Fold this protein.
Amino acid sequence: MSTPNLYQHLLEKFSYYTINELIQLNNDTVSEKGWGSSKSTFRTALISTFSKRGLDLSNIISREDGFTSVKYVAVRLEKNTLIPIVQ
């Protein structure tokens, strides 16, 4: 499956998940070793789904010098905001 097709497939699947299920998927993903294009596409689809659900991502996303960075961390939900879990 090509990356754009995988991304669309994941977005569709994630639309049926609860926020708690999505958070668990994120936390499981960041705890695993290795990083490839499929895993990157998976995490991008997760972050996009969080955003579409109206969650505040400001604690895990930063924008500097025209670049957007997403922290690769486990998260918890607090008052509609994703908060990094400090390990």
Notes: The first strand starts at residue 61 and ends at 64. Helices lie at 3-14, 19-31, 37-52.
